[in-house]
């Protein structure tokens, strides 16, 4: 290996200059992963080390900000582990939905009617979610309520994804054409 | 005690195998930027790199049980990203090795000694390389594979990999010296 090669290999890290859009990519990855295993597995967090919980919380807090914190503080004592899980699931879907709703709102290819119709669907699901959340506060361990919450979010995501798919499909032909190297 | 590099993040990987989604997120966080950069280097487009990275992580998590610590998790994941990228290029009929590939180019193997070059110039130089030269340079110089591994990745023989690499390097040095 000559000097040139050594020099580059030693400085290979400098070629990593781009930063990925973490939230966006993860939203899509986890959506695809969950498509496969329809039922959301609930893994007891207390099995992992304290450090891991801290890391998880740090991530959630940084993403969810004070919203997450306020929810977290509501529950204490023995509910704590369950609420951590809940918080995590909840935040995950909330982010996913918020991100995609944003995409829809920004999309110039959609007519106002479509947007309004879509948002009214979302509002309906919001109401449903609110009921579920109240139910959940009364009865935190109820798996059925939990599943319903997740199903509620999934419905939204599906809705949005179908919408986006439609838009993208119509755009695709153009895109392919424009891409030449 | 120094642990084998293959077992880096073993606990995390094991938790992911068990389907723990927060572990998956953590592992993802550790590697996403590196993989994204690999994708960009091969495909030259952010959108396509995102696509490939996303696909690779989904595949990796779904097939994690096939990962037996023969390499580090990072190296395993990187191979997935690279294989997908190469396949994508092939599907687009973009050459991954020089068109006129033949193996009679063992001519001047005298090391071309150069002064340490500016990495920025190297980056620009690689970007200017013709299709077919870029991938082999990336694989050898930046991703750090040897010619046997590159042969496997590009589906060419080890000696072809060597000769094509030398050609590509010569071309790259030419481009850089003209800057």
UniProtKB/TrEMBL annotation, chain A:
Superkingdom classification of source: Bacteria
Keywords carried by this UniProt record: Coiled coil, Membrane, Transmembrane, Transmembrane helix
Coiled-coil region(s): 122-170
Membrane-traversing stretches: 50-72
Protein's name in the database: Anti-sigma factor
UniProtKB/TrEMBL annotation, chain B:
Entry-linked InterPro entries: RNA_pol_sigma-70-like, RNA_pol_sigma-70_dom, RNA_pol_sigma70_ECF_CS, RNA_pol_sigma70_r2, RNA_pol_sigma70_r4_t2, RNA_pol_sigma_r2, RNA_pol_sigma_r3/r4-like, WH-like_DNA-bd_sf
Protein name per its UniProtKB record: RNA polymerase sigma factor
Domain of life: Bacteria
Keyword set includes Acetylation: no
Record keyword Transcription regulation present: yes
Pfam families registered for this protein in UniProt: Sigma70_r2 (PF04542), Sigma70_r4_2 (PF08281)
Domain RNA polymerase sigma factor 70 region 4 type: 126-172
Domain RNA polymerase sigma-70 region: 27-93
Family in the record: Belongs to the sigma-70 factor family. ECF subfamily.
Species name: Aquimarina spongiae
Any one GO BP annotation for this protein: DNA-templated transcription initiation
NCBIfam families per the UniProt record, alphabetical: sigma70-ECF (TIGR02937)
GO molecular function, one term: sigma factor activity
Keywords associated with the record: DNA-binding, Sigma factor, Transcription, Transcription regulation
């Amino acid at each position: 290996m000559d000097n040139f090669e050594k020099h580059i290999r030693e400085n290979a890290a400098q070629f990593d200059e781009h930063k990925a859009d973490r939230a966006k990519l993860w939203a899509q990855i986890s959506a695809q992963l969950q498509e496969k295993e329809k039922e959301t597995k609930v893994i007891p967090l207390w099995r992992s080390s304290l450090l891991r919980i801290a890391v998880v919380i740090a991530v959630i807090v940084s993403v969810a900000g004070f919203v997450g914190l306020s929810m977290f503080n509501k529950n204490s004592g023995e509910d704590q582990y369950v609420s951590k899980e809940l918080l995590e699931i909840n935040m995950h879907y909330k982010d996913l939905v918020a991100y995609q709703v944003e995409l829809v709102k920004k999309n110039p290819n959609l007519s106002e009617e479509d947007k309004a119709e879509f948002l009214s669907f979302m509002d309906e699901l919001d109401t449903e979610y609110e009921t579920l959340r109240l139910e959940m506060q009364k009865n935190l361990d109820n798996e059925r309520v939990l599943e319903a919450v997740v199903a509620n979010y999934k419905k939204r995501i599906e809705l949005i994804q179908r919408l986006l798919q439609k838009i993208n499909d119509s755009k695709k032909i153009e895109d392919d054409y424009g891409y030449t190297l | 005690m120094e642990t084998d590099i293959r077992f880096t993040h073993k606990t995390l990987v094991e938790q992911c195998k068990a389907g723990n989604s927060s572990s998956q997120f953590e592992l993802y966080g550790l590697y996403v930027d590196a993989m994204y950069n690999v994708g960009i280097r091969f495909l030259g487009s952010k959108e396509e790199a995102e696509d490939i990275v996303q696909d690779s992580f989904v595949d990796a998590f779904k097939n994690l049980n096939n990962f037996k610590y023969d390499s580090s998790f990072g190296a395993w994941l990187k191979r997935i990203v690279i294989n997908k990228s190469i396949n994508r290029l092939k599907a687009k009929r973009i050459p991954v090795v020089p068109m006129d590939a033949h193996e009679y180019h063992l001519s001047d193997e005298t090391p071309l000694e150069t002064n340490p070059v500016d990495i920025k110039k190297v980056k620009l130089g690689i970007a200017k390389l013709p299709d077919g030269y870029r991938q082999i340079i990336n694989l050898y110089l930046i991703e750090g594979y040897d010619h046997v591994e590159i042969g496997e990745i590009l589906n060419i023989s080890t000696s072809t990999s060597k000769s094509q690499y030398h050609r590509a390097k010569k071309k790259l040095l030419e481009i850089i010296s003209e800057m």
